[in-house]
Design brief:
- This protein has 679 residues and is mostly helical.
- The chain has one domain: Sodium/glucose cotransporter, CATH 1.20.1730.
- The protein is built from 32 helices and no strands.
- The longest helix is centred in the middle third of the chain and has 50 residues.
- The termini are far apart.
């Protein structure tokens, strides 16, 4: 690991003199980042107004702005779940760990995401059963543990959102600068502009719809890469690509891989990254308010299918995209077609996420560079939208409504939601700029992220699933976990490299130890503190506070689904059944993606044969094309009723209107689920 750190330092020194000339002009960069961003924003504003006119979705109502009347369908939920994890990092990061560790890197990247996305289905349906009126995770914490816990978890969630945004902006800005020559600070500040505009106007529904459009476009372009790759003479077939990657392992063996091969899961660096990544991503999911908002916005019968289907579909994007892109770059680095020929990629180029752009440029020239520019822009704006709406909800509900004005009206909360959108967009760009100027890049944030995001994982999970965790445990455990993880991270960096700097703290070993400590140390802290004074929380207490504003009765009935309109027994049975399904899928996904599939190959030190590599890559590509159906066509099929309603409204049919007799509180309609919380 010391050698790799030294190589990265050397690469940084060399990068300025060996930088690749941008294949596209600055004008193209500004057109994509600013002009296309504003066009998409205005289109979403138009769609938002169209929905209000045709089907009565008034985004000036808080329940519509923040939770879309809790009626989002399975298809749109699945697409939004994929979009939530389709960070620019997912494509750029999976490619660069493939370059560093071979086929193990993209697999561990994908396996580090899908299990916790599926696990969130369990948390989401539990929240639906116990506190269906909630808007944010922090409301749940406040009701159960009080205001001190509320402040602590607010800080943890805001840190999570801030570092997540920085991770996205650093990677995306570096790629946009490399592709167009656009100044990196200009890219950093202009990327959030369109996001802030359509989120400001449309709220969570605009986020869902933009997620759909962006994700569909990104996956189409990735599928284009899988088809176009095998049409160029230098690659020609999957079998020949295998030969190229095998030769790359002979030229530049990987120190921590079995036999130095890129074609093995027996990669020490790869599995260390996998451990780091799965822990960090559990933190990013559970402590990310945007995931809770999307779960609250989905109808109860859509939460589990949406998150399970979305989590499994997402797996193919980093696996297929990262494996193919890194194989192309590793195989063709010594070829004259390679963008940096005759030299290899520098460590800085790799760490900045340029493996995927170079792969696209090899396959499709300037058109490939334009494709990378477009998908990077769409990925970062789509995920930024979720982060912006999450922080906006914290500012409006958990700061303003809780601490400043408990009697806030619907209009007050909407106004502060708008303030939150604008403030966080500007602050995230400024924070990312600061990190850039102190020498932080995508690789550093990707590795260290878990140290910040993980301390709240288990205390938060216990808050939702375990009635015994005490108030003191919920307050103290994440704080102790945070400082324990921080101490281990910095201490390990100093022990291994003799210094605590950005370079040393960005090494994978300090980050793994710090992340694992941040993740698991709160468990004994919580259990020990709880043992002295265990709580016996009554889940029904969640219903004593009215959290929802007035909403459309028709939309509310739709959101609570057919099973809640028939009979209490039938409703309880269905909600419990969804909870069991979520638990089974969570276990199965973790065992499949983390134990049964990869670990036997790691233990056997298996090196891929040509036929196995062909099967590996072909299955990944087929899976990716299946993801295209999930994110692109399933939402249209599942949402056909609303599409028809919008079409009829455009042709002159009267829209659904709210009235004083229709307007009811969610809690009245959802009272049928009260006894479900007894479990």
């Amino acid at each position: 690991m010391t050698a790799k750190l030294a190589a990265r330092a050397a690469g940084s020194a060399a990068s300025s003199s060996e930088a690749l000339s941008p294949p596209l002009s600055q004008a193209v960069g500004y057109i994509v980042v600013l002009v296309i961003g504003l066009i998409i924003a205005f289109c979403m504003v138009f769609v938002t107004r169209l929905l209000k006119k045709t089907v009565g979705e008034d985004n000036q109502k808080t329940e519509v702005f923040m939770t879309a009347n809790r009626s989002v369908t399975r298809g749109l939920t699945s697409s939004a779940v994929v979009s939530s994890w389709l960070w620019s990092t997912a494509m750029l990061g999976s490619s660069f760990v493939g370059y560093d560790y071979g086929v193990a890197g993209p697999f561990w990247f994908a396996a580090g995401c899908s299990p916790m996305i599926v696990f969130f289905a369990l948390l989401g349906i539990s929240c639906k059963r116990k506190i269906p009126e909630a808007h944010t995770l922090l409301e749940i914490v406040r009701i159960r543990y009080g205001k001190l816990a509320h402040v602590i978890y607010m800080i943890l969630c805001l840190l999570n959102n801030l570092f997540a945004c920085a991770n996205m902006l650093l990677g995306a800005s570096a790629v946009i600068t490399s592709m167009t020559g656009m100044h990196i600070i200009a890219a950093t500040f202009l990327l959030p502009v369109g996001v802030a505009l359509y989120t400001f106007v449309g709220g969570i529904k605009a986020t869902f719809l933009t997620d759909y459009f962006h994700t569909f476009t990104i996956v189409i372009i990735l599928c284009f890469l899988t088809a176009k790759t095998f049409t160029i003479d230098e690659i020609d077939s999957v079998g020949h690509l295998y030969d190229l990657v095998k030769a790359a392992g002979a030229r530049h063996p990987v120190a921590d891989n079995h036999d130095g091969s890129y074609l093995t899961m027996a990669s020490k660096g790869g599995i260390l990254f996998g451990i780091l990544h799965i822990c960090a991503n559990f933190g990013l999911v559970i402590m990310d308010t945007s995931f809770f908002i999307k779960a609250f916005a989905a109808s109860p019968s859509s939460v589990v299918p949406g998150y399970v289907i979305g989590g499994l579909a997402y797996f193919a994007i980093p696996w297929a995209g990262g494996t193919l892109a890194s194989s192309i770059v590793l195989g063709l680095e010594p070829d004259s077609i390679f963008p940096t020929y005759p030299r290899r990629m520098t460590a800085t180029e790799v760490s900045n996420g340029l493996v995927l752009p170079y792969a696209f440029m090899i396959v499709a020239g300037k058109g490939g560079a334009a494709c990378v520019l477009l998908i990077t822009f769409m990925a970062v704006t789509s995920t930024l939208s979720a982060q912006v709406i999450a922080v906006s909800s914290i500012i409006s509900f958990d700061m303003y409504r809780t601490w400043v004005n408990p009697q806030a009206t619907d209009g007050d909360v909407i106004r502060w939601s708008h303030y939150g959108v604008v403030f966080f967009a500007i602050f995230a760009a400024a924070f990312s700029t600061m990190l850039h100027y102190v020498g932080v890049d995508l690789g550093w944030t990707l590795y260290m992220l878990g140290v910040i995001t993980c301390p709240g994982i288990f205390p938060t999970t216990f808050t939702i699933l375990w009635k015994r965790q005490s108030r003191m445990a919920a307050i103290v455990a994440p704080v102790l976990g945070f400082f324990t993880g921080l101490a281990v991270w910095l201490g390990t960096a100093h022990a291994l490299f003799g210094e605590v700097t950005i370079k040393s703290t960005g090494g994978i070993v300090p980050c793994v130890w710090g992340t694992v400590t941040s993740t698991f140390s709160p468990i004994p802290y919580s259990l020990i503190i709880t043992a002295f004074n265990p709580q016996n929380y009554d889940w029904a207490d969640f219903r004593k506070e009215r959290l929802a504003f007035e909403v459309d009765a028709t939309a509310t009935r739709d959101a609570l689904t057919e099973e809640l309109e028939t009979a209490d027994v039938h409703a309880q049975t269905n909600l419990k059944r969804w909870g069991r399904i979520a638990a089974y899928w969570s276990i199965a996904t973790f065992l499949g993606h983390w134990v049964l599939w990869p670990l036997p190959m790691y233990a056997a030190h298996y090196i891929f044969s040509k036929s196995f590599y062909i099967a590996w890559l072909v299955v990944a590509i087929i899976w990716l094309w299946g993801t295209l159906f999930v994110v692109g066509f399933y939402p249209l099929i599942d949402g056909r009723a609303q599409i028809i309603a919008v079409w009829k409204g455009m042709r002159g049919s009267p829209p659904r209107r709210e009235s004083s007799t229709e307007s009811v509180n969610v809690v009245e309609t959802s009272a049928e689920t009260k006894e479900v919380d007894e479990r």
